[in-house]
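wait is this the right file?? whatever heres the structure
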């Protein structure tokens, strides 16, 4: 397989990475995408660091075997630990955390909200990286315990709205943030809910910058696809493949050629006790 025709890999703890895949599809419509969603172990934000690293390496092995030409780490929780595994891949690895921090660093707004999983919030990775890139900004970070799982499992509009209000009201009305970074790839999938509840709040989706950086990287390495036909989307998941096909369609993705089941990694007791 030529370098140009190799797929672009996307890994996520579940369906959240479809928000990245759809942005890549708009930016690079002729590229083939290979998606791995570890829905059988979702949500990652409730796992320990040791567990997350083990689960991530399981997905990296999958992507290495399929010789992806670039890997997008769509899961923010995984991206917080990216330095632990970037060297294990022989292709460019793009982090959604880096993309998200760079996105808000270039905005004029000074008061920035960051909503993420509890694990991502606990690492402090976003406030630290944003401070390096744009020291004048004030960052207000909040971790959601349930929202990613609610999106993953198709919770009702009312339930999602209640969860959003419970977590965002304080950021919007007390901290008076001027923009909000969606620091979990599940959250852009309910972006319309947030717009409806807080129409004045500017939302930042890291997938936009991630797709732009991917295009730059592929051009630099002369790996842009030369095909004229639309790219395909091939899905593997440790959850129900049919659920993933439906989720991909809800996210506005086309060109699904297959969705296949993959065995979930079973975490060992010593990994659960670590950290």
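ok assuming it is, sequence goes like this
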């Amino acid at each position: 397989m030529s370098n140009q025709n190799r797929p672009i890999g996307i890994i996520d703890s579940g369906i959240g990475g479809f928000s990245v895949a759809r942005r890549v599809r708009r930016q690079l419509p002729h590229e083939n995408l290979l998606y791995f969603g570890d829905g059988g172990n979702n949500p990652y934000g409730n796992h320990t660091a040791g567990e997350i690293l083990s689960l991530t390496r399981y997905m990296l092995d999958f992507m290495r075997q399929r010789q992806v030409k670039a890997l997008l780490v769509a899961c923010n929780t995984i991206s917080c630990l990216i330095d632990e595994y970037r060297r294990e891949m022989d292709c460019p690895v793009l982090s959604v955390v880096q993309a998200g921090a760079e996105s808000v660093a270039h905005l004029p707004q000074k008061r920035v909200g960051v909503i993420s999983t509890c694990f991502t919030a606990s690492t402090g990775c976003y406030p630290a990286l944003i401070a390096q890139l744009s020291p004048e900004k004030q960052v207000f970070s909040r971790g959601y315990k349930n929202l990613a799982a609610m999106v993953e499992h198709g919770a009702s509009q009312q339930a999602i709205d209640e969860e959003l209000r419970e977590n965002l009201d304080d950021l919007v009305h007390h901290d008076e943030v001027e923009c909000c970074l969606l620091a979990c790839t599940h959250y852009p999938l309910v972006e319309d809910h947030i717009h409806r509840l807080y129409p004045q709040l500017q939302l930042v989706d890291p997938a936009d910058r991630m797709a732009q950086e991917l295009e730059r990287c592929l051009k630099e390495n002369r790996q842009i696809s030369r095909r004229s036909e639309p790219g395909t989307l091939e899905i593997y998941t440790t959850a129900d493949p049919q659920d993933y096909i439906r989720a991909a369609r809800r996210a506005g993705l086309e060109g699904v050629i297959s969705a296949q089941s993959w065995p979930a990694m079973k975490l060992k007791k010593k990994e659960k006790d670590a950290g």
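The domain at 8-95+208-273 is CATH 3.40.50.1860 (Rossmann fold). so i think its the right one actually
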